[in-house]
Amino acid sequence: MADDDTDLAKLFENVEKRKSNALVDADRDAPGVAPKRYAPVEEDYVVGIVEDRGAEAYRVDLLGASVPGNLGALAFDGATKRNRPQLAIGDAVFCRVERTTRGGEAQLSCCATRGSKKEWMTGAATFGKLAAGAACAVASVSPAFARRLLARDAPVLAALGKHVKYEVAIGHNGAVWIRSGNTLDTIIVSNAVENAEHLDEAQVAPMVDQIVAGMHARTTLLVHGLS
C-alpha cells in the first residue's frame, strides 16, 4: 500500500508541474499556443450552467468561454408554449451552438439536427438539462483536449470504462459533465479526465489504474476505521 501511495504521489506531482507549465504557456501571446478562452463556433456542442432566466430565453454561462450563450425557452425538440422544459438557475445543460452574433454571443439550441430527434419529455433527447446530484460533476479541460475526448477511442475514457460505469457529455468549450452510480466513481472519472490532458498517451491507463486503486483503498480504510 505504501508503494502504491508513493507512486500515486509522484504521478500527481508530475501532473501538477505540467498543469503549471501549461498555465504559464497559455498566458503567452505566441503563435501555436492554444487560446485560454473558448470562442463559440456553429455546430459545436457545449456544456453550460443557467445563470439567468427570462420569459423567452435563458442566459447560459459557457464555462470557459469569453461570451455567454442564449438558449430560447422553446429551443427543445417537441417543446411548445404550454409544454416546455423549466430550467432553474444553476442547472447544467447540454446544447448545440446554432449560430453566433456579431458581438460573439452564442445562440444555443437543444434541438438535434441529425440522428435521433427524441422529444425533450422522453428523457432520451441528445440535448437538454443534465442531471444533478452527488453522483454528478462537471470537470474542466482545455477546448483542444475536449476535441480529443470527442474523438473515438479516447484513451482515458476507454481506460475508465474498464473500472467504472459512467456517462459523460463533452462540450467543445472544455466542460465535461459526468454521472456515475456513486460519488466515489464520479470523483475518479473527474480526476482522471482532468489529469489525462497533462500526460503522454502511454501514461493514461496506468494513471487511471492508480487513481482507482488509491481511491478504493482509502475508502476501505475509512470504512474499517468507522466500524
UniProtKB/TrEMBL annotation:
Chief location of this protein within or outside the cell: nucleus
Record SUPFAM superfamilies: Eukaryotic type KH-domain (KH-domain type I), Nucleic acid-binding proteins
Compartments where located: Nucleus
Cellular component per GO, a single term: nuclear exosome (RNase complex)
GO molecular function, one term: RNA binding
CDD domains per record: KH-I_Rrp40
Keyword RNA-binding: yes
GO terms (BP aspect): CUT catabolic process; exonucleolytic trimming to generate mature 3'-end of 5.8S rRNA from tricistronic rRNA transcript (SSU-rRNA, 5.8S rRNA, LSU-rRNA); nuclear polyadenylation-dependent rRNA catabolic process; poly(A)-dependent snoRNA 3'-end processing; TRAMP-dependent tRNA surveillance pathway; U4 snRNA 3'-end processing
Protein name: K Homology domain-containing protein
